[in-house]
Amino acid sequence: MSEEICFLTAAEQRAAFIRGDIAPSEVLQAQLERIHTFDPGPEGIGAITEVLEKTALEQAHHADERYARARVRDEQLPALLGITVATKEKHGIAGLSLSQGLLAHQHVVATENHPIVDRLQAAGAIIHARTTSPEFSCATVTHSPMWGVTRNPFNRAKSPGGSSGGSAAALAAGFTTLATASDIAGSTRIPAAFTGTVGYKAPYGRVPGAGYLAADWYRGDGPLARTVADTALLTSIMAGAHRADVNSWGAHGEDPLSENLPPLTGIRFGLSIQLGDYPVAEPVVRAMNTVVARLRAAGAEVQEVELPWTTVQIRETYLAHFGQILAPAMQQLLQHSAEEQATYTKKFIHRALQAAETHSLIDSLQLDNRINAELNRATEKIDILLCPTNAMSWLEAEGDYLDGITLRGRHLEHYWEGHMTSPFNICNQRAVMNIPIGIGEAGIPIGMQIVGQPREERKVFAAAQHLEELLGFDSRATDLPQPQMSHR
C-alpha cells in the first residue's frame, strides 16, 4: 500500500483524505521513505537537493487534524491541503538556499519566497523536497559539480532531461505528488517528455516570476504532474497576476478544466511531426502516427501543417536572444567568482555572447517576429497544433554534448536542436503542454506537445484531457531497483 499511495493523484488523495481512508501524513511518510531509499548514492535517482522533513511532517499532521475536523463539521479546506509538492531549487524559499546549482552561489540564501511558493503555501501544500537542475538551468540534461547526476527513473543510464530534471524525475519515481518547473527553451516540457509526466508552459506572464529576469519574454514558471487534471489544479494555484511581477496577468484561482469541455470532434487539430526540418527519431514518428490514427478513428479532424522552419534558423533566433539577455546576466553574476562552472555553462555563455556579436537586440526582435509570423500563418485554420517534444529518443545522464548531436545521420551543431520546444518560447504567448504518448528506445517515454493559439489555455487543457483519455499512459516508474546506499 505504501508504494501505491505514493502515486495517487492529487485529486485521488484529496477525496481519500476527506473520506478518512488515508491521511496526509501517511502519503508523506511513504514518499519520504521512497526518497531515502531510491534517491541517494551514485546509483540513485539524484533528484533531491534538500528534504524538508521536519517542517513537512508538522504540516502533514496539521492537515490530518483539519481533515478530521472537516468530517464532523463544515470547514472550507484549501485546495492543496496536505498535498506534497517538490519545488525546483531556483524557486526561492525564504531562509533556504538559492544556488541554482552553482558552486559560486552555494552560500546564497533566499530573502523572500518566490511568488509561486507563497501561493503553494497559501493553498495548504506541503513543500517536502527541493529538486535539482543544471547550473543556471542552462542545459537539457541535469547534472552539476554541486549536485552530481540526476538520473531517469525509467533507465538510470539516461537523463530525465532538463532543466527541471529533478522535478520530473521525482514525480516519475513517486517522491512527490506535484512539482514546480520553469521553462525558457523547453525546461518543463523536455523533462516531462523523457519521464512520462505532464508539463505545462503557460503563455508568458500567466504565472508570476521573480527578479529582473522575469522580464525575459522567453521564460516562465509552471507545473509538473502525472495527469492533466492535476496539472490544471496546480496551474490554478500558481497562475494569475501578482504584485511581485509587473508582467504577470490574468485571474488567480481559475481551473482551466472547470468549464464544460468542447467535444473532441469540435477541436481542429493540426499535425507537424518535423516542424520544418527537425530530424525526428523513428520511434517518435511512429508514436505520433499512432496518436493521429487514434484521433481520426475517434472522429477528430487532423490536418497536416507545413512550417518553413529549419533547426539552424531556430538556433540562430534563440542564441541571438540569449546573447542579448541571459548570457550577459550570467556573466555578470559570475564575474567575481573563483569557482569553476560546468563545461556546458561556459559553452552556453560563449556561444550566446558570440551570437550577440553578430545580432543586435533589434536583429533579435526581427528574428523573433519572423518565427511568430510564420507560426501564425501556418496555424490560422486550426485550434491545436500537435508535434513531438523531443526529436531524439533519449540523452545520456552524464552527457555534455558540447560538440552537438547526430540524429538520423545528420549532425546538429547545438544539441538543443534535438528538442522541438524552443520555437514555442520564441512564440511565448502560446500555451503548450507535454503529454506522454508511449515508450521509445531504451525504455524512455515519448512526449508530444499540444500547442494552442495565443493566450488560449482552456482549449489546450481540453485537448490534453481528451488525448489522455484516448491514449492512456502509466507515468509511474514503480519498478525501481534497489540502489547502493551511499549518501551524496
Summarize the structure.
The protein has 488 residues and is of the alpha/beta class. An 11-stranded mixed beta sheet has the order 1-3-2-6-8-7-14-15-11-9-10, sandwiched between helices.
Q: Characteristics of this structure?
A:
488 residues, alpha/beta, single chain, eleven-stranded mixed β-sheet, globular
In words, what does this structure look like?
It is a single chain. By secondary structure, the protein is of the alpha/beta class. The chain has helices at residues 2-6, 10-19, 24-38, 53-70, 115-122, 165-172, 189-195, 228-238, 282-297, 311-324, 326-334, 343-358, 361-378, 423-426, 458-471, and strands at 48-51, 84-88, 126-131, 143-144, 148-149, 178-182, 198-201, 221-225, 268-271, 301-304, 384-388, 405-407, 410-412, 430-439, 445-454. The strands form three sheets. An eleven-stranded mixed β-sheet has the order 1-3-2-6-8-7-14-15-11-9-10, sandwiched between helices. It has a two-stranded antiparallel sheet with strand order 4-5. A hairpin with a 2-residue loop joins strand 12 and strand 13 (410-412). The radius of gyration is 21 Å and the shape is globular.
Explain the layout of strands and helices.
Layout: H1 2-6, H2 10-19, H3 24-38, E1 48-51, H4 53-70, E2 84-88, H5 115-122, E3 126-131, E4 143-144, E5 148-149, H6 165-172, E6 178-182, H7 189-195, E7 198-201, E8 221-225, H8 228-238, E9 268-271, H9 282-297, E10 301-304, H10 311-324, H11 326-334, H12 343-358, H13 361-378, E11 384-388, E12 405-407, E13 410-412, H14 423-426, E14 430-439, E15 445-454, H15 458-471
Parallel strand pairs: 2-3, 2-6, 9-10, 9-11
Antiparallel strand pairs: 1-3, 4-5, 6-8, 7-8, 7-14, 11-15, 12-13, 14-15
Helix pairs in contact: 3-4, 6-7, 10-12, 10-13, 11-12
